[in-house]
Amino acid sequence: MTTAARNIAILGSTGSIGRSALSVVGESDGRLRVIGLTAHSRLDDLCAQAKQFQPPWLVVTDADQAAKFDWSEKPAKSQLLYGQDGIETLVGQPEIDVVVAAMVGSVGLRGAWRALEAAKTVALANKETLVMAGPQVMELAKARNAKILPIDSEHSAVFQALQSGRREDVKRVILTASGGPFRERSSQQLAEVTVEDALAHPTWSMGPKITVDSATMMNKALEIIEARWLFDLEPDQIDVVVHPQSIVHSMVEFRDGSVIAQLSPPDMKLPIQYALSYPERWECPSPRLDLTEAMQLDFEPPDEERFPALRLGHEVAAAGGTTGAVLNAANEAAVQSFLDGQIPFTEIVPACRSVLDGHHFEAKPSLEKLIELDGWARQEVTRWVCT
Ligand code: NAD
Ligand code: MG
Questions:
Q1: Are residues 252 and 348 located together in one domain of the fold?
Q2: Which of 21, 91, 298, 329 fits 374 for a cystine, CB–CB 3.0-4.6 Å?
């Protein structure tokens, strides 16, 4: 039996996840069809992707860059839209089945939100969407009967492991963390970390922002918050274990003590493909586990003294309300300040802590309030950096 191709739009197609998603499309034997691609910069890459995949829609979010670019190579059939409005027009197109949310940062929220409003399935890489507005986003998905399928490898693993038992029998989830490039560094050595050091991840190849987040372990903090809302878990049901090989992508422990894990070599194409093929499974171009070779899997508890971001993750997952949006924006701004050489690596998390502690908490904020706080938290980091 042949099934109709799934029509997808990729928000952030020039990024690390976006490019992997397109390679999954390329290997899908026509089961996936690209309807729209979006990028903020690197427009020559966007144009090359358009030539290869011939999407009816292209969106450039940075209108100034779009105005300066020579579009003579763009396929005639690809209509060009601009800015956030362009994203919202794209994701509402009736022929789209799945929106891959793969922009980086809080700018990803509105596109994912609009896609859910239009009852599309959202394949979610942009964890910031759930960190900022988890309860609101999950409520919207429920109201529109729209699915959110995780691309983040840990959450994909949990999503897969959850299928082996009843929801009410889940004891806890255990998110694995590679520990990043500085797993074995002392606090003193962490103070000397350069931008180049922080951008060299031992197991995963990713965009710069999430690579720095992996080095501070803020990425795992954001993932604790993401898991809390995505899987409707209590904050104390989410644990983190450091697993440097990044083979076990996460685990679910059930009431009887059984722990179900998902394993594969670290390659984002597998969780991306699963979100796009679900509930089917397809042959995948990612490397496979080779158990004929000797292999070691290590697990150790995380060190919250050297990586205090983890504490922030647990706190924000427990507090909810406005805290996720504030932590996320403060972290984005602090990471940018680090990448710009304005603050040392070890100041990223204290900057986040300071901004989080200084904000006026609200338990049930509106989406507008969260977006306002996103701007406020960024300004607070700028003030913090300048003092
Ligand atoms: P990236 O930096 O490689 O790519 C980001 C994409 O977003 C690019 O297409 C870029 O043009 C677009 N973009 C950047 N700024 C924008 C703006 N202001 N407005 C609109 N679009 C903008 O990032 P990435 O590593 O692919 O990560 C994308 C998302 O996926 C992030 O939320 C990240 O946390 C999540 N994620 C990534 C990985 C990974 O392996 N890279 C794994 C899990 C989750
Ligand atoms: Mg992850």
A1: no
A2: 329
Is residue 244 situated within a structural domain?
A: yes
pLDDT digits (tens, 9 = 90+) for 135-193: 999 999 999 999 999 999 999 999 999 999 999 999 999 999 999 999 999 999 999 99
Domain C-terminal end among 150, 168, 185:
150
* 99 and 111 Cβ atoms separated by less than 8 Å: yes
d(CA 123, CA 280) in angstroms, rounded, equals: 15
39 close to ligand 1 (CB < 6 Angstrom): yes
Atom of ligand 1 nearest to the CA of 206: 41
Query: Which residue's CA is the closest to the ligand 1 atom numbered 21?
Result: 40
- Nearest listed ligand to the Cα of residue 59: 1
- CA 232 remoteness from chain centre: 18
Single-letter amino acid code for the residue at 362: E
Phi, psi of 296 (to 5 degrees): -120, 135
Do 180 and 224 belong to one domain?
A: yes
Read off the pTM. 0.97
How far apart CA 88 and CA 82 sit, in angstroms, is: 10
> pLDDT tens digit string along 64-83?
999 999 999 999 999 999 99
| Contact (Cβ atoms closer than 8 angstroms) between residue 47 and residue 71 | yes
Say if residues 101 and 8 touch (Cβ distance below 8 Å): no
* Ligand 1 centroid distance, CA of 46 (Å): 14
| pLDDT tens-place string over residues 367-387 | 999 999 999 999 999 998 887
Q: Is residue 281 predicted with pLDDT exceeding 80?
A: yes
Give the residue whose CA is nearest to atom 41 of ligand 1.
Answer: 206
**Domain check: are 237 and 299 in the same one?**
yes
Same domain, 195 and 251: yes
Q: Is residue 25 part of a domain?
A: yes
Terminal Cα-to-Cα distance of the chain (whole angstroms)? 65
Candidates 86, 23, 18; CA nearest to 78 is 86
User: Rounded mean pLDDT of the chain?
Assistant: 96
Q: Looking at the structure, do residues 168 and 281 belong to the same domain, yes or no?
A: yes
Domain span including residue 27: 6-150
pLDDT given for residue 2 in this prediction: 56
**For residues 35 and 336, what is the distance between their CA atoms, to the nearest angstrom?**
32
Give me 184's structure tokens.
Answer: 């074995």
CATH number at residue 10: 3.40.50.720
